[in-house]
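Predict the structure of Peptide ABC transporter substrate-binding protein.
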Amino acid sequence: MPVSRRMTWSAAALAVVLAATGCSGDGEDPSTPDADAVVRIGIAEPQHMIPSNATESAGAQVLAALYTPLVEFDADKKPFEVAAESIESTDNKLWTVKLKGGYTFHNGEAVTADSYINAWNHAAYGPNGNGGAYFFGQIEGYDDLQSTDPDGEGPQKGPEPKAKKLTGLKKVDDLTFTITLSGSFAEFESVLGYHVFAPLPNAAWASDGVLKEGFEEAPIGNGPFKMKGTWQHDSRIEVERYDAHPGPKPKIGGVVFQIYQVLSADYADLIAGNNDVTRQVPIEALGSAPGDLGDRFKKSPLSAFQFLAFPTFQPEFAKAEVRKAISMAIDRDELVKTIFKDSQTSARSFVSPLLAGARPDTCGEACQFDPAKAKAAYQAAGGPAKLQISYNGDGGHKEWVEATCNQLSNNLGVDCVSTPETRFADLLNKVEAKTPVGMFRMAWSMDYPSMQNYLGPLYGTNGSSNYYGFSNADFDRLVAEGERAPNQEEAIKKYQEAEQILAREMPVIPLRFGQNNFGHSTRVGNVEMDPFGRVDLLKIEVTG
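Done. Here is the predicted structure for Peptide ABC transporter substrate-binding protein.
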């Protein structure tokens, strides 16, 4: 969508919002929050809006409005019950979930144990191709819901699976169900905080296990906001407060999630007064943002891990020596200083420093900038004469990707080109189809606060976000042993051993650990972003 069209729509939306909320200079006290006002938040185009199939940050932000999770996390990153009344286990294998009464879906249906069981069975069933299916892999019976294609490359093709429902899910009563895992997992309660475990209403189903066509265009959730209309692709998604929600009430009447193809347009709308929250100030504006916004330019901790990924299944990237040499040719500190204005930190390990068990400098020599050694190692390993870095153009990555390419060209003596895809969803679709894209930009923010979440999904042989084809039996074994450990302390020891394998094999290049660098308009206050990269929609309010 052209930027000019986006700017025109935003201006129109502003006029409608101001008229609806009374923020038009009519003499009202501007410090009095308007509980019916609508807030505008910039996002990229989501890839999906079914909770079990949405594994990127734009979709996660919208789903945080539409769905209330079983658990959330306190300041110490410990889980506490939200939609759940209790989650208990005596052996870390058999878990009993009791739901709070009073929760309803946005169409009035009661949220019951069946709402979770039906949604999770659909999520785990391999032929449905849900991106979050991996997270159900610890539940008993998961393997029987998968089919493998003739080449053994994935669960979405081939013969019909043995079963369609997880044997590990059992209904006890309308508000109680049990989850039996294939093995113990002490951190499983934290896993249940991820939105892929959201419930779905009866209205979602065309038949048993089959979603209604079009449900994704207007999902029906159990959260503090409900859809207003349908998903307007590449334009906007609107939600409005759901007054029947039994949990904490929002301080606003709704949200317009304005979809941008480039971050610069998002930020330009903020400066022009046509947007209320820019979740990520673009790189090129980091220097000017303090002057542009004053105390409305905010920073907060973020669990983001930025990295370059290798399609290890391609011959030119099959050797770990080639991958390590490329890593050694990148001056992370220089990029952080000159491009990111020290708003991020260099990454030389694979796990966010916010987590228990995280250690600095785990990838050792491979993450130390040494251009002479890098070039010699690259040539000795037979690295390709041409490199490509693909990235999503809607995420503000152009400047640093081009700078990284320049470093690789200069330090390795290769021809490096940067190639944008219009949207992150487009890049992911190409990578999933194994369309040649060269190295590609990726990032990860935690789904739940555990080292396991930075290891299994990203590098496990069947990991949900292992787009690079990495597979190592010892790594898989160590992650599994960590999951089966009796407590977090013992689990961390195994996860740290698994991380050492990544340091040896380098399926990806750690680049940076991020922080939330965001800004907001004069209309709104109490704007906070959490370590998951989401605006807290229960705290934000309109005061102008």
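Residues 332 and 346 are 6 Å apart (CA to CA).
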